[in-house]
Amino acid sequence: MKIRLAAVALIPFAAIIVLRSTVHAQSPAKSVWDGIYTEEQATRGKSVYSQECASCHGSELTGGEMAPPLAGGEFMAGWDGLTVGDLFERIRISMPQNSPGSLSGQQNVDVLSFIFNSNKFPAGTAEMPKEAGILKQIKFEVKKP
Question: Is 17 within the bounds of a domain?
């Protein structure tokens, strides 16, 4: 009886593992070149960036003494081949430095939109979603495919 209950209790965890491995096994269907954010989102992101990020990363996204640049070759090379979800998660769990995780999901994708806009990735007609799982399906590619 105890073994059966333990097995039943493990079913949800096994399902999660299978779903996660399926998600990670799939190749991202979109890239940053597909217009994954809107201009309005980038504008909102610029405001949040100015208030929450610029003191460390610089007003021009060029980096600071302790913070890396968020625009240009070094930034692009560091994220090339990863996913937008990877970058979103880095921002979500570690920024802003003085209060990690304090920004909402919407604020995080708005800042991400501003970063993409600053790196000359095209805007589109639909807002970038704030769900990390969806963002994991969007590839960060330096060169346009």
Answer: no
Task: Please count the structural domains in the chain.
Answer: 1
- Measured distance CA(64)–CA(67) in Å, rounded: 5
Q: Is residue 145 assigned to a domain?
A: no
d(CA 36, CA 50) in angstroms, rounded, equals: 22
- Alpha-carbon distance of 131 to 36, in angstroms, equals 13
Domain membership of residue 94 as a residue range: 29-139
| Domain at 90, CATH number | 1.10.760.10
Question: Which pLDDT tens digit goes with each residue over 42-67?
Answer: 999 999 999 999 999 999 999 999 99
pTM score, whole prediction: 0.81
User: What stretches of 26-125 show up as alpha helix (H) in DSSP?
Assistant: 39-52, 54-57, 73-79, 84-94, 105-118
Spatial contact of 75 and 69, defined as CB atoms under 8 Å apart: yes
Q: What span, in angstroms and rounded, lies between the C-alpha atoms of 35 and 60?
A: 22
